[in-house]
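Input (structure):
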C-alpha cells in the first residue's frame, strides 16, 4: 500500500464532475524520463561495451534527461504564468459574485417586506 505513482494520479475531483482521467502529457513526460534513466542504468551495467563507449552512451542519455527536464521546467513556468494571469480574473469574479449575492439578499428582503405589507393591507 503506497502512494500511487504521479502518472497514476488523476485530474480533478470526480464527485464534482471534474475529469478523473490521468494527464496524458504528464504520463508521456514521466515515461520519457523513466526510459532515459533505464537506458543510463543499462549502459552502466553493460559488460560488453568498452568504458569509453559506456561513457559516451551515458553522456548521450544524460543530455536527453537534461532536455526533458528543461521541457518540464518550461511547462511549469507556462502553467505558473497561466495561473498568475487567471488569478486576478478569479478575484474579480469572486468580488462580482459577492456583490450579486448582497444585491440578491437586499432584493429578497425588499420583496418579503412588500409581500408582508401587501398581505397586511389586504386583511
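Output (sequence):
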Amino acid at each position: 500500500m503506497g502512494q500511487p505513482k504521479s502518472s497514476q494520479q488523476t485530474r480533478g475531483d470526480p464527485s464534482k464532475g471534474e475529469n478523473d482521467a490521468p494527464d496524458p502529457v504528464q504520463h508521456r513526460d514521466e515515461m520519457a524520463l523513466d526510459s532515459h534513466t533505464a537506458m543510463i542504468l543499462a549502459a552502466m551495467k553493460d559488460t560488453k561495451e568498452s568504458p569509453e563507449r559506456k561513457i559516451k552512451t551515458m553522456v548521450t542519455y544524460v543530455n536527453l534527461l537534461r532536455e526533458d527536464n528543461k521541457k518540464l521546467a518550461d511547462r511549469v513556468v507556462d502553467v505558473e504564468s497561466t495561473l498568475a494571469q487567471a488569478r486576478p480574473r478569479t478575484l474579480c469574479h469572486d468580488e462580482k459574485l459577492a456583490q450579486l449575492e448582497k444585491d440578491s439578499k437586499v432584493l429578497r428582503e425588499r420583496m418579503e417586506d412588500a409581500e408582508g405589507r401587501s398581505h397586511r393591507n389586504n386583511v
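Notes: The chain has one domain: 23-116. Residues 23-116 form one domain.
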